[in-house]
Amino acid sequence: MVSTEGLQSVSRVLPTAGLDGDFWSTQGQNLLLATVAVVVFITIVLLIMYGADLVKGRGRDKVTLIVLISPVLLLLGIGLVYPALDTTWLSFNDVANEPDPATGIYTTVMQFIGLENYRFAFTDPSTLRTVLNTFVWMVVVPLLSTGTGLAYAVFIDRAKGEKILKSLVFMPMAISLVGASVIWGNIMYDYNQVGEQTGILNALGAMVGLEPYNFLADNPWNTLWLIVILVWIQTGFAMVILSAAIKGVPVEMNEAASLDGANAWQRFWSITIPSIRSTIVVVLTTITIMALKVYDIVRTVTQGRDSTDVVANRMYVLSFVEGREPLGAALAVILFVFVIPIVIYNVRSLNKVKENR
Amino acid sequence: MSVTMPPQQPVKDKDPKKGGGPGKGAAKRAKQRLTSPWATAAAIVIALLWTIPTIALFMNSLVPGDRYRTDAWWTVLADGDLTFGNFNQVLFDSFGDNSTAPPLLEYVFNSIVVTVPAVVFPVVLGLMAAYAFAWIPFRGSNFLFVLIFALQVVPLQLALIPLLRLLGPENLGVAGQFPGVWIAHTIFALPLSVFLLHNFVSHIPREVLEAARVDGASHTQMFFRIIIPLSLPAVASLAIFQFLWVWNDLLVSAVFGSANTYPLTYPISNLAGDYGQYAYLVPPAAFISMIIPLVVFFSLQRYFVRGLLAGSSKG
Q1: Which of B71, B100, B160 sits opposite A14 (nearest CB)?
Q2: Is A95 helix (H, G, I), strand (E, B) or coil?
Q3: Is CB count within 10 Å lower at the N or C end of chain B?
């Protein structure tokens, strides 16, 4: 690997890039590395599992159990639980580079400062704005995606070509947030001060005589235009789950209601909605969490300009670009606090499902 | 995060065909739809809004660089100037804000190298743990399972800084290399993987496993002879899910990767906000990045939907 890195950095100094001499050997090495990693991983798993099977007598079940669950528990403990606690601790501290009194060498010193990072987050105007923006994302994205997804699922239920109509709206689920951001930020919302409008929406506006509109610079509406991108992706998810739930509503209930003279609108509100209520809640919570954590859209489209920044993006910039990790940690904890009610709700409903088994 | 389907909510792929004669039933069902012209019009508008943007992206990637900032694609189309040359240039010459930037093909390979192990590792480890939680009773089993379930919802932002330090030069020394990215992706995927596969594995009929147990099969033998073959549909759903997740990821790759490992999303995200002379390279690159996930999605949509309905989605 070391030699590859050297070669690559040399080749990039040359005036033209392209597929230079090392290209295929580097890619070949990387592909080989991935193949070897998978093969070695599977081999180790097989060896350890069959090794545990060789244990004689009563100990065998115990050894097998340990082999089965310890990788997951170790990885989650070391890679997720401990880091989460460490981040929380970091958020109550400040990190400074100070000379060591004995040796004079500069070292990183942690100093406990209590809630100072949180006070900063909620009083510094631009950081407070990112918290408020995140809150708007968290409320608007689930409502719009679930509402649109539900309406679409009902409209096309049992329609001709339902499968294809579903695929069309579901398709953005396969597109990356970066790809969707390019689609909307660079193409739908594109804005030219003068000349022909190359953006789809401004071109349509020009056809009906509207002045060109700079979607991404118009604070505070620009946050809404960014939110549209995530709604565009998440509506398909809401639609597929809700459509399956709608099909689970017994046909007899609708038949009985229409015999009683209920029209489609009344049946929708008095039969469909109550029958699928718990599924709606599940969809809303899933999308809420998605909206809370999204970083790709803001980073790709505006980089947080014009007051569009959100906590997830600011957290990344603070921690990995500006080196203000304690403040970044505080923002990560704020994100977690937003989801705590959802964690509790989910654990409760999991226990209910288990009781009903 | 997780979707726990409530038990009273039967979820079916297909319309339950109940009662009525063959012709009569269909007519009845058709009558129950919200068949107003407004509903149809709204459905058409939504379907168009959800497809036109992707088509517009494709048309934009055909606009030559010297006309990109000034002319819309339909004007260029009218002049007969659309070209596939941008795809060639982006893939094989250079992609970035200067002419010495490496070509996109390098990132295509990086995406593949990042994705394959990052799908295999969590699926295999998740299936092992799912079997243990479902079929091997032990003390603390319930508590640990609920904990793993709750971890699905924890924003991964909370783990980034310390995990980077753990993988970084002072400790494991794999940050910025492929193994570091694989490990990070594996860790973040495990809660969903365990939960989704547990849902499936725990529904395997008890008699099947007890019969094998009576015949003297060990847990290892049952895992390989019964659990793996029977849970292949769930494994397929999860693998597709994880594939799309890793392929489309930006955050994990940006934090744990480096210039040698960045996948497609990274350079595209960097150049998208730069409206300079290389802006015309962004649409073709974005389109290229979508081809593989869209092919996977459309060919394996059944499994993907099944995975979603079985109780999952992740963020």
Answers
A1: B100
A2: strand
A3: C
Residue range(s) defining the domain that contains residue A216? 123-355
In a shared domain, residues A216 and A330: yes
Q: Provide the shortest C-alpha distance from residue A188 to chain B (in Å).
A: 7
How much is the pLDDT for B18? 40
Distance of CA A335 to the CA centre of its chain: 12
pLDDT at B274: 83
Number of other residues whose CB lies within 10 A of the CB of residue B306? 17
Global confidence as pTM = 0.88
A284 with A138, same domain: the answer is yes
| Domain assignment of residue A108, yes or no | no
pLDDT value for B315: 32
| Residue from the list B101, B244, B269 with its beta carbon closest to the beta carbon of A296 | B269
> The domain spanning residue B156 has which CATH number?
1.10.3720.10
pLDDT reading at A311 higher than 60: yes
Start-to-end CA distance of chain B, whole Å, equals 6
Q: Among A2, A186, A305, pick the best mutation site for testing chain B contact (most B Cβ within 10 A).
A: A186
Would the pLDDT of B23 be above 50?
A: no
Is residue A259 located within the same domain as residue A333?
A: yes
Which CATH number covers residue A289? 1.10.3720.10
A212 and A322, same domain (yes or no): yes
Looking at the structure of chain A, the number of domains it has is 2
Could you tell me if B135 lies within 8 Å of chain A, comparing CB atoms?
A: no
Please name the residues between 262 and 281 in chain B that touch chain A, using a CB distance below 8 Å.
265, 268-269, 272-273, 279
* pLDDT surpassing 50 at residue A213: yes
DSSP string, B82-93: --SHHHHIIIII
Cα torsion through B301, B302, B307, B313, rounded to 10: 30
Contacts of A345 in chain B (CB under 8 A): none
Total residues belonging to chain A: 357
Tell me, yes or no, if B283 comes closer than 8 A to chain A by beta carbon: yes
Tokens 């009558």 -> residue? B31
| A75 and A160 share one domain | no
Nearest neighbour of A356 by CB, restricted to B7, B35, B50: B7
Domain, as residue range, for B188: 109-266+302-309
**Residue-level pLDDT at A16:** 52
The answer to whether B112 contacts chain A (CB < 8 Å) is: yes
Confidence tier at A265 by pLDDT (50, 70, 90): confident
Q: Does B290 touch chain A (CB under 8 A)?
A: yes
Q: Is the dihedral of CA A187, A188, A193, A196 positive or negative?
A: positive
Q: Could you give the angle at the alpha carbon of A138 between the alpha carbons of A132 and A139, nearest 5°?
A: 95
Domain assignment of residue B242, yes or no = yes
Name the closest residue on chain B to residue A191, using Cα atoms.
Answer: B69
User: Does residue A51 lie within any of the structural domains?
Assistant: yes
**What average pLDDT does chain B have?**
85
Which residues of chain A neighbour B149 with C-beta distances below 8 Å?
A: 346-347, 350
Domain boundary among A66, A83, A100: A83
Give the domain-ending residue among A83, A115, A136. A83
Within this chain, do residues A301 and A181 fall inside the same structural domain, yes or no?
yes
Cβ <8 Å between B29 and A60: no
Q: Per residue, what are the HEC states of A303-343?
A: CCCCCCCCHHHHHHHHHHCCCCHHHHHHHHHHHHHHHHHHH
B144 pLDDT more than 70: yes
Q: How many domains does chain B have?
A: 1
Q: Is residue A103 part of a domain?
A: no
Residue B120 belongs to a domain:
yes
A-B contacts at Cβ under 8 angstroms: 443
Q: What percent of chain B has pLDDT over 90?
A: 62
pLDDT tens-digit map of B42-87:
889 999 999 999 999 999 999 998 888 888 999 999 998 899 999 9
